[in-house]
Write a structure and sequence with these properties.
The protein is mainly β. The chain is built from two helices and 49 strands. The strands form twelve sheets. Strands 10, 12, 13, 15, 16 and 17 form a six-stranded mixed beta sheet that branches.
C-alpha cells in the first residue's frame, strides 16, 4: 500500500513540477523525491461518528463511520472484542469513510478505532476507542411451570407461572376455552415477570393456556399448550345451624345442591382442622345424610364438597354443632405442642374447651410426676393461662382438668415444653498461627452444660468439637492453611439447645512470598487457590528447614508444562503464582520435590488443579 502511495505521489509531483526547484532533477532528466524537501505532515486523526460510543441494541449488520481526512488515501479500521484489541481483532483497510460489519454476534460488546494513511504511507494516530453492544437474540419459547398440565380442582383465582426465557423482556399470556384458542378468555401482553395472578375463573370450567416471550431481538414461538380445570362451586350448608348447641345424638346434615354436581363428599370430625375423621361418605347422591349415633357433650365439625366425575369442588365452610352435655370431659391441651422447644420465658398455655366445663384447673411443674408444683390454679374460667418468669433452658410439665357443678374430670395427659436457652453472641474468629483458629464469644446462658462448635468450608456446617461450661474461647487446630472457614456455636444442656450464635468467618494464614515470623515445622503442599482458575492461580507450600526445592507443572498426559521453582530455599512459607494464559482449559497437576541437605529428609506431593476458560 505504501508503494502505491509513493507512485501516486510521483505522479502528483510530476504534474506540479513547477513547484519543484531545478536542482531536484538529475542530469538525465529525472527528478528525485526528497521527503525532507516535500515536508508533508502525517494526516490528522479521524473523529468517530457512528455508532455512538457505548450504544446498545445495535443490529447484527452495523455500519461504522468517521470524519473525512483531506489528505488521507486510505483508512485502517480495527474491530475487537476487548478494549485493548487483544482478542477477536479484525483489521481492514478501506478507501471510504464507512465500513460495513456483517459478522457480528448477538449480545456481544465490540470496540473499534480508525486511523488515516496518506499517499506516502504516513499514518495518523489511532482515533479514540469507541464501543457498542449488539442486540440480544430473540428469546426461546417459554416452558410452563404451574398449574401443571391436566391439573384439576384449581381455585377461581390462580397464579400462572412459567420458567423465565433467557433474554426475555415481555411475556404474553393467553387463556382459552378451546385447545385451538379460537375462544380466548384472557390475553395479557405486557407481563414483565414470569407469573400472573388470574382471577374470577368460572367454577367447573376447563381452560387451555400458553405463553410466548419478546425482546428487541424478536418474538419467540408459543410455549406448549397446557390445560387445567377449575374447582366446582362451594357447597352451601343448611342445617343444623352453625354453632348450634344441645343437638340430639341422631342428626341429619343438610345442604343446598350445586349446579353440575352428580354426588357429594361429606366429612365429619371432632377437630376443626379435620386431623381425625369421625365419619365420611364420599358418594352421597342426595343433599342430606343421617349420621351414626353421636357422643354426648361433643362438638362436631362438618363440611361438604360437590363432585362431578373425577373432578371435585372445594369444601364448604366448616360448620359445627354440639350435642347435649353430660359431665365435663377431660380438656385437650393445644399450645405449646407436646415436646415443643425454644419456648419463651413468659408463655401462654392453651387448651381446647371441654364440653360442660365451667372452670379449669392448671398445674405446672418441673417434675414429670408433679411431685412439686410451682403453679396450681383451679379457678380459671378461660382456656388459656399466662405463666411468667420461667427459667431458661428448662423442661416444664403441665396438665389441665375441667369441672362443673357435677364434679371434676381427670387431668389431661401431661405435656412438656422446654424454654429457650439464651444463645452465645459476639462470636469472633481469627487466625492463630499456623493451622490454628481462635474463637471467642459471649456467654449469655446461666445453665448451659457446654457449647457445640460447628464449622464449614464450602459445604454445610459440621460439628467439630464442644467447649465446657462457662468457656468463652476455643482453639481449632484441625484447619488447613490458606483456607476460608465459617464458624457458629450454640449452648446446650440435657433439656435444651440454644439458637445459633452469629457466624464468624476467617481465612487461615496465606503467604505472600516468604511469610516473615511464620516458621513451619513440617513440609506441606497446599491446594491452589482459586481452583478452578482462569487464567492464574497461586500455590502455597511450607519448607521446615533449608532444602533443595523443585515445583513443577504437568498436563494430564504427564508432560512437564512449566518449572516454577528450582533451587535452595530457607525455612518458611512460600507462594508461587502460576499464569496459564497461554494454556488450554483442562486438568493439570503440580508436584513438589524437596530434599534437605542438612538432615536428608525428603518430601514429595502432587495435587490437581482445573483450568477453565
Amino acid at each position: 500500500m505504501k508503494k502505491i502511495g509513493m507512485l501516486l505521489m510521483v505522479c502528483y509531483i510530476f504534474l506540479n513540477s513547477a513547484a519543484i526547484s531545478a536542482n531536484e532533477y538529475s542530469s538525465k532528466g529525472f527528478f528525485v523525491l526528497q521527503a525532507d524537501t516535500l515536508n508533508i505532515a502525517a494526516p490528522s486523526t479521524p473523529q468517530l461518528y457512528s455508532p455512538s460510543n457505548q450504544s446498545i441494541d445495535r443490529p447484527l449488520k452495523t455500519s461504522l463511520s468517521w470524519s473525512t481526512i483531506s489528505d488521507a488515501a486510505t483508512y485502517e479500521v480495527q474491530v475487537a472484542t476487548d478494549s485493548l484489541f487483544n482478542y477477536g481483532v479484525r483489521d481492514s483497510v478501506v478507501t471510504n469513510i464507512y465500513y460495513e460489519l456483517w459478522w457480528l454476534q448477538n449480545s456481544r460488546k465490540y470496540f473499534w478505532r480508525v486511523k488515516a494513511i496518506d499517499f506516502l504511507g504516513q499514518e495518523s494516530s489511532w482515533s479514540e476507542i469507541w464501543g457498542f453492544t449488539t442486540v440480544s437474540a430473540a428469546p426461546p419459547k417459554p416452558a410452563l411451570m404451574s398449574p401443571s398440565d391436566g391439573a384439576v380442582n384449581q381455585p377461581q383465582s390462580i397464579l400462572m407461572k412459567w420458567y423465565p426465557s433467557e433474554g426475555a423482556k415481555i411475556y404474553t399470556l393467553e387463556l382459552a376455552a378451546d385447545t385451538f384458542f379460537n375462544n380466548v378468555t384472557h390475553h395479557i401482553d405486557t407481563l414483565r415477570t414470569n407469573s400472573m395472578q388470574i382471577s374470577n375463573l368460572k367454577n367447573g370450567m376447563k381452560y387451555f393456556w400458553r405463553v410466548n416471550a419478546y425482546n428487541k431481538g424478536g418474538l419467540s414461538d408459543w410455549s406448549q399448550v397446557w390445560r387445567f380445570s377449575v374447582v366446582l362451586a362451594q357447597t352451601p350448608l343448611l342445617s343444623p345451624a352453625n354453632s348450634s348447641n344441645n343437638q340430639s345424638l341422631n342428626v341429619t346434615l343438610k345442604w343446598k345442591p350445586v349446579l353440575s354436581a352428580d354426588s357429594y363428599q361429606l366429612q365429619v370430625s371432632t377437630y376443626p382442622a379435620f386431623s381425625s375423621i369421625f365419619f365420611e361418605d364420599a358418594s352421597v347422591k342426595e343433599t342430606s345424610r343421617e349420621l351414626p349415633p353421636l357422643s354426648n357433650s361433643t362438638t362436631y365439625y362438618w363440611r361438604v364438597r360437590a363432585k362431578q366425575g373425577s373432578n371435585t369442588g372445594i369444601f364448604s365452610d366448616t360448620w359445627n354443632f354440639t350435642t347435649i352435655k353430660p359431665l365435663p370431659n377431660v380438656p385437650v391441651l393445644t399450645s405449646p405442642a407436646d415436646g415443643a422447644t425454644f419456648q419463651p420465658l413468659n408463655i401462654t398455655l392453651m387448651w381446647n374447651t371441654a364440653p360442660n366445663a365451667l372452670m379449669y384447673r392448671l398445674q405446672v411443674s418441673n417434675k414429670s410426676d408433679f411431685s412439686t408444683v410451682f403453679f396450681d390454679d383451679s379457678t380459671i374460667t378461660k382456656t388459656s393461662q399466662d405463666i411468667y418468669s420461667l427459667k431458661n433452658g428448662t423442661r416444664y410439665y403441665w396438665r389441665v382438668s375441667s369441672k362443673n357443678s357435677a364434679g371434676s374430670s381427670q387431668f389431661s395427659n401431661a405435656c412438656s415444653f422446654v424454654t429457650v436457652m439464651l444463645s452465645p453472641d459476639a462470636l469472633q474468629a481469627s487466625s492463630f498461627g499456623i493451622k490454628k483458629v481462635k474463637l471467642t464469644w459471649g456467654d449469655n446462658s446461666d445453665n448451659e452444660a457446654g457449647f457445640i462448635i460447628e464449622r464449614k468450608t464450602t459445604g454445610g456446617f459440621e460439628v467439630i468439637d464442644t467447649a465446657a461450661i462457662n468457656k468463652t474461647s476455643f482453639i481449632d487446630s484441625t484447619v488447613s492453611m490458606a483456607t476460608a472457614y465459617t464458624y457458629r456455636i450454640k449452648s446446650f444442656n440435657s433439656a435444651a439447645v440454644s439458637q445459633y450464635s452469629n457466624e464468624a468467618a476467617v481465612t487461615t494464614i496465606t503467604s505472600v512470598e516468604t511469610k516473615e515470623g511464620v516458621l513451619p515445622l513440617e513440609f506441606d503442599l497446599f491446594q491452589n487457590y482459586p481452583n478452578p482458575f482462569n487464567p492464574s492461580t497461586k500455590i502455597d507450600y511450607a519448607i521446615p528447614f533449608e532444602s533443595s526445592v523443585k515445583l513443577t507443572i504437568y498436563n494430564s498426559l504427564g508432560k512437564v508444562i512449566r518449572e516454577l521453582v528450582n533451587g535452595i530455599q530457607h525455612q518458611g512459607l512460600y507462594e508461587v503464582r502460576f499464569d496459564a494464559t497461554d494454556l488450554p482449559s483442562g486438568l493439570y497437576f503440580y508436584a513438589i520435590d524437596a530434599r534437605s541437605p542438612l538432615n536428608g529428609q525428603e518430601f514429595k506431593s502432587v495435587k490437581k488443579m482445573l483450568l477453565v476458560k
